[in-house]
Amino acid sequence: MKEKEGLADCPEQQLILYVEKEDGKYGPVQTGSYLSANYLDDYFYKRKNLEISLRKRVVEGEISLVYYYMVLVDLSISELASRVGISKSRVKKQFEPRGFAKCSVEELRKYAKVFNVPVANMLQIVLINVEKNYESLYIHEDKTLNISVEQDSTVNPYLSVTKIGERSK
Amino acid sequence: MIIEKFKHKMAAHCESGTITSLINHAGLRISEPLVFGISSGLFFGYFHKMKSFPFPTFIVRNKPGQMRVNITKRLGVKFNEYSFHNIDDGTRKLDELLQKNIPTAAQVDFFYLDYVPSWERVHINVHFMVILGKEDSNYIISDSYFPELIKLKSTSLENSRFAGGNMSPKGFIFNVSYIPTTIDYEDAIIKGIKKVCFNMLHIPMPFLGVKGI
User: Which of A18, A57, B16, B164 falls between 20 and 30 A from B173, CA-CA?
Assistant: First the structure.
């Protein structure tokens, strides 16, 4: 690949490519990610729609938050089961609200750790108002809003503290 | 505490970048492409179904961890390697090595690394980075995918080192213990190339090597 072909403008995600330079020699060049520079809007659009459709199914009682998070973080059932330390069949049962009701608090804590959310978020979806639309905090990317919602874990593994306030500039 | 002499450098691959940084810090000047080639890093595999992901994926390098093994075999560089069953033991050992100013590489799950852009963060237990020091509750990280040194919360590092699932890191850390005085680069390079040729041409699986492409 020629140096010019490899260059992309994406300050958020830099990488090293080995390219053919103008003098004909190969060497490293630091550039932005081509994929991130060109396809991020499409990714966020699809991810937002996916979250909305999953949220609708959770709200209607069709699926549990275990399934909701598993799809959003792109985990397979066997990988989720292995990370939580329970059987695949038990995970599958917990995809539905009836099976989810039999989850122990300890299982919820383990799920929360895998999904990197506070335990409280295994029983709720936090939404924030963005231009008259509610968006899930879990996938929200816009850091320019006036309001900030921070969910901090504590030494107590079953307690998180949610702080809502004006975003400091 | 930060290991001041350590030179952070970006790299094309995390494992070859990490190994290169550690070896350079230990006194042997070698480039990332040379490490990548000698350790037979080049590979291809297409996986329609993989245990970790619910979607088809492909890989473009050899098995995670294999580069270190191949570098040991072909260059004679030796590493101290540590795995842990207990999180506290793993954290204590890492802190102990950092106290002695020994830059230590770790195998981690990408998902818990707060500094990685959200769209890049997936559960995959095969990322490598160098840990240089600790300041309060943050570790100082040299991640070869990022231009600058980074601070990472100790809880995030702990979660990423001790994530479960496929190829679980089990807190795996390593550092350089020995650099040989003389190295036969020609022999090492030929062995590296031969192994890549074998892997790309002769593994009898339809989804690996050139057949996979």
Answer: A18
